[in-house]
Design brief:
The protein has 425 residues and is α+β, with helices and mostly antiparallel strands. The chain contains 16 helices and 16 strands. A hairpin with a 5-residue loop joins strand 3 and strand 4. Helix 5 packs parallel to helix 10.
Length: 425
């Protein structure tokens, strides 16, 4: 046993489970690539102030959950708790918004860190795939991103997820609603910390999961009743576009999500098979975030989908993804001469795109064939001195058990033909 173990609230991603995670990341990113989103990668840590300004001083993420550190040079840094602020910072720093082609469409994949109480579906180190469309205010763009996430989930075979949708208004109508909500909340029996939140960001109180708070929120004013005409029209266009695309959604007037920067469209994907940690992804429009972090006005929209939560959703629905085989061919040499000859063949097969492994360590035939079966390979290539003298190898189909001699110089073509399902020459 090792002296060390993974830190509390984290996990190691190892085979075979890692193949599922990779497949989920690929499924989520594929629709984005088809829609013109380019890949971006940002550092794992940023200035604390970036998240304090962008995510919000009053959020649990900033006040309780960020991993922070002070460098030897005195810089205050934080491990990134989410991706949007980092991506927007990078886009602004590189002046991507000035290249004349808006919106700037970006997608990313990576690890994020929050100091939370660990439980199933909630980790201190977690994986997300995200997408951001920067620099354009258009309900079609909001709808596009929601549809891309919806299609990604459906491509994985998921069916038991729901899309919750709301509008949080804009700088014109939200202040009126904020004042009405604060007046309502000040009359409730709330603890001191929640009362402080009422003054800083009252919308966050609606997101409080405690039953004692939720009971008191019955009858609270809703944003939908305070939307200005422009926000009403914008939200209705998003709803119409989703409906036309066959994307079912549920209007949720209490949906505010956990970040301060959202405006207008906000949404969340939830899966009913995950218990309390039911959110598998979400996002929304954040038209003022660029200005919050020192940039120009840059209306934007985006989302992040949890890879960990999506894998749990697949398990909850009993879905097993069809994953490509790690190994198509397993080479078993019998003797030193065969070892050299087959190793050269293995290299050639790999260069021709065939996933191939080799019986390392001088194993005997019995143990080497056990390794071949465990590898999941479709074929085993076996060769001894007699085979080599005749210029052949034995090609064994590990599914049917059939075995035949194949000329050494024809092996690569024969294997490729049989793997593709076409008859060999």
């Amino acid at each position: 046993m090792s002296t060390f173990s993974a830190p509390k609230g984290t996990y190691d991603l190892i085979p075979p489970d890692s193949s599922v995670f990779l497949a989920v990341r690929e499924a989520i990113s594929t629709p984005l690539k088809r829609a013109g989103y380019g890949y971006i990668e940002t550092p794992g840590f940023e200035a604390v102030e970036l998240f304090a300004r962008g995510v919000g001083e009053s959020t649990d993420i900033v006040t309780k959950e960020m991993y922070t550190l002070t460098t030897k040079g005195g810089d205050e840094l934080a491990l990134r708790p989410e991706g949007t602020a980092s991506v927007l910072r990078a886009a602004l720093e590189a002046n991507l918004h000035k290249l004349g082609n808006l919106p700037v469409k970006l997608w990313y994949s990576g690890s994020y860190y929050r100091y939370e109480r660990p439980q199933k579906g909630r980790y201190r180190h977690f994986s997300q795939v995200g997408a951001e469309a920067l620099g354009t205010e258009d309900p079609a763009l909001d709808a596009e991103l929601i549809i891309l996430a919806f299609d990604a989930y459906r491509s994985l075979g998921l069916r038991n997820f729901r899309l919750l949708l709301n509008s949080l208004g804009d700088k014109e109508c939200r202040p009126v609603y904020r004042a009405a909500l604060q007046e309502f909340l000040r009359a409730l029996d709330l603890d001191e910390e929640t009362r402080r939140r009422v003054e800083i960001n009252p919308l966050r109180v609606l997101d409080d999961k405690r039953e004692a708070v939720q009971k008191q929120l019955v009858g609270a004013p809703m944003m939908r009743d305070h939307l200005c005409e422009a926000c009403k029209s914008y939200h209705e266009q998003v709803r119409e576009l989703l409906t036309a695309a066959g994307v079912a959604f549920e209007d949720d007037p209490k949906l505010v999500r956990g970040l301060d920067y959202y405006t207008r469209t906000t949404f969340e994907f939830v899966h009913d098979g995950l218990g309390s940690q039911s959110a598998v992804g979400g996002g929304g429009r954040y038209d003022g975030l660029s200005e919050m972090i020192g940039g120009p006005a840059l209306p934007s929209v985006g989302w992040a989908l949890g890879v960990d939560r999506t894998v749990l959703a697949l398990k909850a629905e009993g879905i097993e993804l069809e994953l490509p085989a790690h190994t198509d061919v397993f080479a078993v040499p019998l003797g030193e001469e065969a070892r050299r000859a087959l190793f050269s063949l293995v290299t050639e097969l790999r260069r021709q795109g065939v996933a191939t492994d080799f019986a390392y360590g001088g194993k005997g035939l019995k143990n080497a064939m056990k390794s071949a079966n465990r590898s999941g390979a479709r074929f085993a290539v076996v060769a001894g001195e007699r085979d080599l003298a005749e210029g052949t190898v034995q090609l064994k189909d590990l599914e049917s058990g059939e075995q035949s001699a194949v000329a050494l110089d024809a092996l690569v073509d024969t294997v490729r033909e049989r793997l593709s399902g076409s008859p060999s020459a």
